[in-house]
Every structure is written in structure tokens, then in C-alpha cells.
Q: What sequence folds into this?
């Protein structure tokens, strides 16, 4: 049972990751308000998808519904298994709370509408940013739960100390991991505000901002974009340090983090050079989500190491 539930959770992580990427596509196609009401769309359960942008917004809602149903099914099965509940029950409960908050916030992104600089209606920046953070937090909860179930053997019983890997030290030191996590959360906040305010091109060059000047102004959306870039440079330094620190005890995860950082830098630059094409925008968001989940796994590995130390003692 434990092995099947773990596979189910990892499958749910993948689908949730796809849902986050789909959300980025909805934003990139400016289809966030293609359905003017919620939870229905134009008053219908199944709207006319031929209407402009509806295929994106309604498709996103359908996939979100499937994720919710899948999580509910797996969550019930986890709670029905005593061993699984002991290790992952609280994490699944937290994931359920985050999911409920995400559903509410998804509705608010449609119902709370503001006027942009050109007078065009668009979702409120705070709802879009919170929606982004909650979506990634939900994916992190599922990944954490799946990692926790890895402490169970094939028999469904928690492994003893001699069955576990002798490497019981955490993959990364707490100070560096805390700094990385805080900077990553800050980057999601900045990125969400930039995307929701359609400020992705206030700096038209990279690595400079405009006219060959790196820091022309710290006011308004230009300042927001520059803060996003400076924090990205900090994340690159912290991320490579984190990968180097984790290389012995979690070599695969360390390589994944390093590779994601490189690809994310390239995607961010390509977004500016190519003037925010939807494909690159989706890739940029998907890579950020993968980094968020990888961070959750690093924290889960630290927790698992403490469990092993406790058992060994």
C-alpha cells in the first residue's frame, strides 16, 4: 500500500506541476478573465470553448478539479493506513488546508477585478501572487508527503536503523538552506507581482535594464524588476552553494537543483530577449515551480535524517 500511495503522490506532484505551468499559460495568453464568473463560466458548467480565451481558463479549471479529486482520494487512503498516516498524515492535512485556500483564491482572482494602466480589466495583483504561492506550496506539501512515505519499507512498516541508508547526515546545512528558502519565497513574491502587473518588459534589456544602464531607477515597476533581478543573482549564489553542500548525501538532488538554476537563468534572459513569448514564460514558471519542490525535498531530507538519527540512537 505504501509504495502505491507514494507513486500516486508523485504522479500528483507531476500533474500539479503541469497545472502551475498551465496557469502561467493562462496569464501569458491574458485569459485569466476569459470566464467572467466563478465557479461557473458564463453561467454554464461547460461553457462554449470557442469564445476567446475560454479554452485556456476553463481547461485550467478542469485540470485543477482533477488534481483536487486525486488529492482527496490519495489523502483518504493515506489516513486509512496507520503507518502512512503516522508519517505523512499531518503533511496531507496541511496540503488539504492549502488546497482549500488555493481554491478560494482561484475564485477571488476572477471575482476581484482591477483596472490596468490602459483601463483594461485584470485580476488584482495580490490575488494572482497569493494564488501562485499557494499553488507551489501545495505541490511542495505533496512532494514532502511522498518523501516521507519513502521511510516505509515494501512491507509498509517503518524501516529500522540497519535497513536504512548509513548516511544519516542532512544534505544541506540549516543556515544556507534557510537563506535559500527565504530568497526563493521572495523571488516568487516579486515574480508574481511583476507578472500580475504586466511589468515583465519594463526593462527591455538583459543583463542591463535599458540603454545599457543596469539600474536606471528604483521607483515603480522598474524598481520591482530590478529587485527581482538582484534577488535572482543572490539565488544563483545560494543555489550553487546549496548544491555543492548537498553533493555527497543527495547527489541526484544536488545536480537537479544546479541544472534547474542554470536553465532558469537562461529562461529569464530569453524572456527579455524574445519579448515574453508564451512558451518561454511557461517554461520560466515551470522551472521556478520545480525549484520550489526541490527545496521542499531538501527540507524533507533533513527531517528524514533526524528520524534516522533517532532510530539509530
A:
Amino acid at each position: 500500500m505504501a509504495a502505491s500511495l507514494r507513486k500516486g503522490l508523485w504522479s500528483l506532484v507531476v500533474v500539479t506541476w503541469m497545472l502551475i505551468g498551465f496557469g502561467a499559460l493562462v496569464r501569458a495568453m491574458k485569459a485569466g478573465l476569459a470566464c467572467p464568473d466563478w465557479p461557473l463560466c458564463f453561467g454554464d458548467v461547460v461553457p462554449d470553448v470557442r469564445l476567446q480565451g475560454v479554452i485556456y481558463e476553463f481547461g485550467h479549471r478542469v485540470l485543477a478539479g482533477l488534481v483536487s479529486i486525486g488529492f482527496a482520494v490519495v489523502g483518504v487512503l493515506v489516513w486509512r493506513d496507520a503507518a502512512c498516516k503516522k508519517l505523512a498524515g499531518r503533511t496531507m492535512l496541511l496540503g488539504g488546508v492549502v488546497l482549500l485556500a488555493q481554491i478560494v483564491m482561484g475564485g477571488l482572482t476572477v471575482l476581484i477585478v482591477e483596472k490596468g494602466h490602459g483601463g483594461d480589466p485584470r485580476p488584482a495583483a495580490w490575488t494572482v501572487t497569493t494564488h501562485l504561492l499557494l499553488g507551489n506550496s501545495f505541490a511542495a506539501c505533496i512532494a514532502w508527503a511522498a518523501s516521507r512515505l519513502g521511510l516505509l519499507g515494501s512491507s509498509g512498516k517503518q524501516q529500522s536503523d540497519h535497513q536504512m541508508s548509513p548516511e544519516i547526515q542532512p544534505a544541506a546545512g540549516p543556515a544556507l538552506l534557510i537563506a535559500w528558502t527565504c530568497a526563493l519565497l521572495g523571488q516568487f513574491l516579486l515574480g508574481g507581482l511583476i507578472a500580475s502587473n504586466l511589468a515583465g518588459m519594463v526593462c527591455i534589456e538583459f543583463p542591463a535594464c535599458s540603454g545599457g544602464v543596469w539600474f536606471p531607477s528604483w521607483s515603480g515597476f522598474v524598481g520591482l524588476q530590478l529587485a527581482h533581478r538582484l534577488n535572482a543573482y543572490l539565488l544563483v549564489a545560494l543555489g550553487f552553494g546549496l548544491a555543492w553542500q548537498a553533493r555527497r548525501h543527495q547527489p541526484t538532488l544536488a545536480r537537479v537543483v544546479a541544472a534547474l538554476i542554470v536553465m532558469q537563468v537562461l529562461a529569464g534572459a530569453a524572456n527579455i530577449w524574445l519579448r515574453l513569448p508564451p512558451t518561454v514564460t511557461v517554461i520560466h514558471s515551470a522551472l521556478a515551480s520545480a525549484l520550489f519542490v526541490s527545496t521542499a525535498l531538501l527540507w524533507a531530507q533533513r527531517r528524514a535524517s533526524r528520524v534516522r538519527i533517532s532510530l539509530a540512537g
Remarks:
- The first strand starts at residue 113 and ends at 115.
- Residues 163-313 form one domain.
- Confidence is low (pLDDT under 50) at residues 159-168, 308-313.
- The chain has two domains: 1-159, 163-313.
